[in-house]
C-alpha cells in the first residue's frame, strides 16, 4: 500500500474537522475523493502533506509513518501537492514557478524532472516564458500540477483540479491525470464533481462532514 490513512482525527483550533478517516491509495492507482465544499477534503490533503497537525491516527506512506514527520521531509519522499488555489507566484514565469520546489529542495536532477513535466504536459513548455498571471485559471491549474511533478516520484495530491475550470480545460486536466497513471504515478484527486475524470479513476471515496462514507465504485 502506497498511502494508508487510518483512524485519522484532525482539529483546527477547538473544532473537529476529520473524524476517524480511513483511506488507501495503492501503487499506480488513481483515487477520487468526492464531497461537497466543507466536507474535509482539503483538510485531509493538507494533513497528509504535513501542513496541519494530526490529533489522532496514522498516515503511512510507502512504509513510513508521516504523522509526526515535518512537512519538508514528506516532499522529499516523493509526494507532490497541487492546492485548489494554485499558489503560483504571479511575478515569476511559468517555468520559474515549476522549478521553484526543486530549487527549494536543492534537487540534483532538476533538468531531468523538468523534461518529464514537459513530456507529460507539453503545453507548459510553450507557456514557459509567460508570467503565471497571464494564464487562465485552468492553465494555472496545469502549472500547479506541473510544479507538483517536480517533487513527486510516487504520489500526487490534486485538490479540486476541476473547480472553476472551463469544460475544455477540465477535459485536458483529466487527460493529464490519465497520463500520470501511464507514467506509474499514483494520485488522489478531490472534487465536488469528479465526472470529468470518471474514466481514469480506479476507486472513489465519498467524504461528508469529516468522515469517509462507504467507498464507492469509480464514477462511470
TrEMBL record:
InterPro entries: AAA+_ATPase, ABC_transporter-like_ATP-bd, ABC_transporter-like_CS, BCAA_Transport_ATP-bd_LivF, P-loop_NTPase. One of its GO terms (biological process) is L-amino acid transport. SUPFAM superfamilies: P-loop containing nucleoside triphosphate hydrolases. Pfam families: ABC_tran. This is ABC transporter ATP-binding protein. The keyword Cell membrane applies. Keywords: Amino-acid transport, ATP-binding, Cell membrane, Membrane, Nucleotide-binding, Transport. One of its GO terms (molecular function) is ATP hydrolysis activity.
Amino acid at each position: 500500500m502506497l498511502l494508508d490513512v487510518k483512524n485519522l482525527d484532525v482539529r483546527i483550533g477547538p473544532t473537529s474537522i476529520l473524524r476517524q478517516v480511513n483511506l488507501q491509495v495503492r501503487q499506480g492507482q488513481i483515487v477520487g475523493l468526492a464531497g461537497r465544499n466543507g466536507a474535509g477534503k482539503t483538510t485531509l490533503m493538507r494533513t497528509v502533506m504535513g501542513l496541519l497537525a494530526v490529533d489522532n491516527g496514522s498516515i503511512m506512506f510507502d512504509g513510513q509513518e508521516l504523522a509526526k514527520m515535518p512537512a519538508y521531509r514528506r516532499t522529499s519522499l516523493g509526494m507532490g501537492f497541487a492546492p485548489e488555489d494554485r499558489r503560483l507566484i504571479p511575478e515569476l514565469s511559468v517555468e520559474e514557478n515549476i522549478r521553484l520546489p526543486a530549487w527549494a529542495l536543492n534537487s540534483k536532477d532538476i533538468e531531468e524532472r523538468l523534461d518529464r513535466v514537459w513530456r507529460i504536459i507539453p503545453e507548459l513548455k510553450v507557456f514557459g516564458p509567460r508570467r503565471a498571471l497571464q494564464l487562465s485559471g485552468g492553465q494555472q491549474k496545469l502549472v500547479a500540477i506541473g510544479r507538483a511533478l517536480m517533487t513527486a516520484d510516487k504520489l500526487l495530491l490534486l485538490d479540486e483540479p476541476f473547480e472553476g475550470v472551463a469544460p475544455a480545460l477540465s477535459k485536458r486536466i483529466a487527460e493529464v491525470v490519465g497520463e500520470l497513471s501511464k507514467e506509474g504515478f499514483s494520485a488522489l484527486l478531490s472534487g465536488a464533481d469528479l465526472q470529468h475524470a470518471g474514466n481514469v479513476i480506479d476507486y472513489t471515496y465519498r467524504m461528508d462532514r469529516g468522515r469517509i462514507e462507504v467507498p464507492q465504485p469509480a464514477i462511470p
